[in-house]
Amino acid sequence: MKERVSMKTRQRTALAALAITTGLILTTAGCGGGDDGKGESKASASARHTTGQDVSPTPSPSSEQTLAEVKSNGITLTVTSATRDQGGFLTLSGKVTNGGGKFWIAADWRGDERELSKNGSSLAGASVVDKAGKKKYLILRDTQGRCLCTKFEGGGVDAGQSVDWYAQFPAPPEGTNKVDFQVGSMPPAPLEITEGG
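Structure tokens predicted for Lipoprotein:
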């Protein structure tokens, strides 16, 4: 009888210990770092409370290299990538920065072609010019006339803001590594094409 009571006592003790251990593990996991849902990590919140001011993490140096940059009417167009893909496409990407004092509307970048008119404020009117081969490459589009390019949300870019962009074209023939990128009233941006994987 004593042995039976002793066995039950040991089982209850083991279950209680297991419950306490599980509770401690869950509590510790809940107190771990990470995002608290307010966009501020516990580490940065702790740093702010310690120093009495907001502490932002030091930004890492950008791995993007500027291939070309052109400016017109407060707008800066930067090209950071010009890659020829194996599928016969040329993909360009970069940033558009509005350095002006008001909202910039990208309406004149959409192009004059009727097929592209449904693209709204976008890079649909962009082109790539191969001067040596005397050819102009227009932006690629799908069967419904939608360009394979960035469409600016809200129709443009707010003052002081930057937006990432991309545009795809038929690739010039291999051996052609230098082209000019043109969109809207921006000056031509001379580029050197890199070979993609």
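The first strand starts at residue 68 and ends at 72.
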